[in-house]
Amino acid sequence: MEPHSLYLFCAVLALLVGGAFCSLIAGRAAAATASCACVAAGAVGLCLSLYLLLSGATLRVSFPLPLPLGECLFCVDRLSSVFLPPVFLLALIGGALLPGRLKSLAAEAAETGARLAVGRHCFFFCFLIAGMVMTLTAADAVLFLISWEIMSLMPFFLISPLDRDANERFAVWVYLTAAHLGVLPLLLLFAGMGAEAGGTDFALFATRGAWSHPCLYFMLALVGFGLKAGLVPLHVWMPEAHSSAPGHVAVLLSGAMLNVGLYGILRVLLLAGPPEAWWAYALMGAGVLSGVTGILLGLVQSDLKRTLAYSSAENMGIICLALGGALLACSIGSSAAALLLAGVFLHIWNHSLFKSLLFLAANAVKEHTHTMLIQRLGGLHKRIPFTGGCFALGSAAIAGIPPLNGFMSELLLYTGFAVGSKAAGNTETVLLFWGAFFVLGAIAGMALFAFTQAYGLAFLGAPRSAQSCQAREPETLFKAAMLLLALLCLCAGFAGPLLLKALSPFLVWFASGLGIPTAVCAEGMEAAATVLAWYAALGAALLALFVLVSLARGRAVGKNGFAEGVTWSCGYCRPTARMQYTGGAFARTFAMLLHPLARTRTVTPKVQGLFPGREKAIMTSPDWPTELWSSLLFRPVTAVAEAAKNLQTGLVNLYILYIFIALVAALTWALGWA
Amino acid sequence: MTSQMIVALGGMLLSLLLAPLLPGCTNRVKAMMGGRKGRPLLQLYFDLCRLMGKSPVYPGVTTYFFKAAPTACLTSAVAALTVLPFWPVAAPANFSGDFILLAGLFAMSRFFLILAALDTGSAFEGMGASRDALFSALAEPIFLFCLLLLCRQAHSLTLSGMTTVAAGPAAIQGYWMFYLMLAFALFLLLLQENSRIPVDDPNTHLELTMIHEVMILDHSGPDLAFLEYAAALKLWIFSLLIAGLVLPLPSVPLFDDGGSLGPHGLAGLAVHWGTTLLAIFGVGALVGLVESLMARLRMERVPQVLAMAGAFAGLAALTLWRQA
Predict the structure, then answer these.
(1) Torsion sign, CA atoms B149, A292, B104, B239
(2) Per the structure, how many domains does chain B have?
(3) Is the ipTM beyond the 0.90 threshold?
(4) Which residue of A has its CA nearest to B322?
(5) Partner-chain residue, chosen from A402, A445, A561, that has the shortest CB–CB distance to B101
């Protein structure tokens, strides 16, 4: 217990909460106040969480606040300190961008006549960050649920600050419904655990060896937290919410809040005692479904930000799959568990970095073009090379291109599955590891498809509409934020051994929590360190070779000179922008091939008569899990509710009839059974 | 630097020098099968020299990616040679999991090539990019899976370990079915990844039916030379991989205890290298044979070729099972 870190942690919370309330009353200075609070809290928190991660210290703070149940107890242990750095980093970035974003939102509001409540927006923004920090550090079940609610509720107010159109309103409502339903399993989970343990303190849960229903708790956690992490088919809120949210909010939602869902799953894994065999299967199954469906739905989207949101579902799926693999390896005592866990946590960090970079770049584009539809964009790289370059780097990282960071964590996961399959004795385990390896390869292939499509069609080629020509570079601060994230993506690929070293005490601790012997864990860590060292070295060599080859190419071109011409289109010398391939066409064959999962619909008009009028062919890729939920759950509930309305018509005679029936029933009961 | 390293680097240099000969070999076989005389074996060398001296033409809409793609493709192909062993010594870079990096390097060249094709804004190149992205996305997991199977069979997670064990007769004994099926699956993937018949016709003159060739339509001069050279290297890499699998040669101890070339070292090395080269050109000739005997398939049937590769990999896995 160290008093300095304790004060710093309290200071971070105080800054966020204080900043929230101050921005409510600050009037014109609201954005500046909130921004300062978030940046300060982010900077202090980042240093604090990294310090705690490296030192392995545990921080416990208890506030004497009268809660109805439980107590106000925060504990920053190793697991929290792994998840906190991305939250604080993105809080720093989001906070720094807040004034600029609000200014541009205000300008748009003035143009369209919409209302923008700056003070309230800042208030909710600060509380979103505070909620995430509290959720990650709460050490009491009741406090955890309160923090969770705060965190879950805030995006409802933040997603659509201008309330632009029906789509945004729909996104907000879908988000609210999903967040509410997601709390239900968590309430049940903690109520059950609390009742059994006789208290709500997490320390009490952790010391309890055997639970009576660990499987039930695990399932509840997987559903409740999986919804927040955006696992398919519980992801329905994510494409809507992430694509509607303004830049500074989308960054936090995609880069930090999804992680909190994963944190919940991992926390319950640690609390629920020794994992059972089928938990690994459940996690792997959820991961495969989420990974494959997520990226497939992502690659048929025509909206750039929706593609990004679906790819979050894919990445969360990859993480879940690897986590399941780690549990499986754990059960056979293989060192693959440590490799996979290292890959899981590195991938969580990497995903936060490249996904927030991509969302920032996409938002920079949307601000001036006012559209994210691929068929309206194109040629952006020529107009906004900085934003384009950042998006390209993010795409390369997420598509798993060496030497960037995305492939670094995936390399560990692949190696982990391979080691596991080599070590496994019985048939099912080998097949499961092979299957996981194969699926990871398939997901990586599809991710490459999705992101070359997203970048190539939206940013390269010729602009497809006037909107696309209006793209401009964002302000300097925004550029700096993108540059920071891009550099982190680039450096993380080379810093693999360092990152692993920083994570290794935590990994050993976490692995022992899952019941992996230290010697086995150390063996796995050594293998991971070797792989990452080679990756970093070969990455550097690759970069050097690239520079060398470019120099050779530059020399040859410089000697011969070059000319500029038009694109060769089969001899046609006047190609136009409308002749380019578009998103629908690019992904069409893929969508047809995997129709059961992509469900692309085409409505072709019937052309009739000799002189047919204008007709439209419409190709859509609806989110089929949403339709599934609505037909399985929401429509039946609505039907029952509609039918129940007939009970209350307002007719007095009917109410008298109810009273009469109730009296008769009561009489019968009293006479017959009493 | 140990002599083992020198031999490994020598193998790499040999690959870099001889790769452009492989398409020539394929072409010669095709010409012979068609009763023609065919172009010179060294045609690609001449082409590369000629192209290096030409000045390129850049379409006006293109950006940095159009120019970076040839460099990236060549870089990734050369980098791939560092993890791929030139039999019988280990590759210059070998570590557990290097076979995944090989797939990653292919992904890198594909990423840049697709972006370069989309950069031109041409409908034809977009079409080619879409096809290439789709077929490679389907082929990638199968390729990785083939290597994973080798991993289990050879009890090694490095490419060098996989292929050197495969080369020894003791390892192959009883597993010849496994290696044969795996080599066949990899051969199908070679045809796809290198855009050969029946997946793609390198000699077609109709842009609508092309995959790889249509993606590089707008590249010219040194850029085209780089792309052609990178393509030849990729074909070489796949052939080398298959050759490393099916060569049933005994491994002669080349090095003595001190790590330097042993008494029979040089002669042994010559025999090994000669056989490996023969096997590589054998694969190249086989490609030519397939191209002479088959027509290009319709695009919608290409996934079936890949499914067949996957099925053969699965069958290979099954044979592994019976023996395990």
Answers:
(1) positive
(2) 1
(3) yes
(4) A427
(5) A402
